[in-house]
Amino acid sequence: MRLRVDLLPHGTYPDVVLVIDVLRATTTAITYLERGADALLLTATPDVALALRSEGMRQDGARPDGESTPYLLGGERGGLPIPGFDFGNSPVEAAAQNFTGRTVVMNTTNGTVAAHTAAQSGKHVFLAALTNAHAAARRARATATEEIAIVCAGTDERVGLEDVYAAGVLAEYLLAMGESSIDDGARIALTVRRSSGNPLEALGSSVHGARLASLGLGEDVRYAAGLSTSTLVPTLVTGDDVPPGTLKFIAG
Ligand SMILES: O=C(O)[C@H](CS(=O)(=O)O)OP(=O)(O)O
Ligand SMILES: [Mg+2]
């Protein structure tokens, strides 16, 4: 088995891909499914998300529960909610809601883009964060036949300490589960994990963690630092019901 860590999304992925965007997209995605969402649709652009909702309203009309569409929109630009969306990209906000029976359509600056890159070639694509680290590692190990690629989303095409740290946590778990050859990306991630303190210290010291704190979103950083608080692993599925320009993830 090969274990590979890409510090930014690039290249092609022949087998299993774990996409990480700890702050905050994959942490928030896990939370939506934890809070009962039927599915997540990760869109390529905000416009695809807005068009989906308009189309859903046109087709469905009013639903019996008084809601006009099964779609709820979550996402951000510059860390703040996108105009016309229902939610930002906050796991704390998501954890306070009940999404039963709803599909959450997500678009974010980095995480949803990384998922689209991974899905272009990956055979099995999962979303991972610190909050589901152990379950995601187990799932990857059980699924892979040749390679596990951990793909860090980064921020605006720059490497993010929070994602590399989480990749190191996943790599540690994976190496404890069986032998693998590891690339230099995995060595870097393991070194960062071992030298950056506990999860909250690591996330808090990252540029993006500090930026979120300055936006008043420090509670999201604290939430994202919760290690293996969930056993849920968002899993990419395909099928005729997946709208163009989106990736569908369900709870696995
Ligand atoms: O919401 C986030 O934390 C970031 C947004 S940004 O880096 O502040 O623009 O988005 P994500 O896609 O979750 O990295
Ligand atoms: Mg991020």
UniProtKB/TrEMBL annotation:
GO molecular function: 2-phosphosulfolactate phosphatase activity; magnesium ion binding; sulfopyruvate decarboxylase activity
EC number: 3.1.3.71
Hydrolase listed as a keyword: yes
Catalytic reaction(s) noted: (2R)-O-phospho-3-sulfolactate + H2O = (2R)-3-sulfolactate + phosphate
Listed cofactors: Mg(2+)
Pfam families linked: 2-ph_phosp
Gene3D superfamilies associated with the record: ComB-like (3.90.1560.10)
SUPFAM superfamilies in alphabetical order: ComB-like
Enzyme class: hydrolase
Superkingdom in the source lineage: Bacteria
Alphabetical list of InterPro entries matching this protein: ComB-like (IPR005238), ComB-like_sf (IPR036702)
Keywords assigned by UniProt, alphabetized: Hydrolase, Magnesium
Keyword check for Hydrolase: yes
HAMAP family, A to Z: ComB
Family membership: Belongs to the ComB family.
Name this polypeptide is given: Probable 2-phosphosulfolactate phosphatase
Organism: Deinococcus koreensis
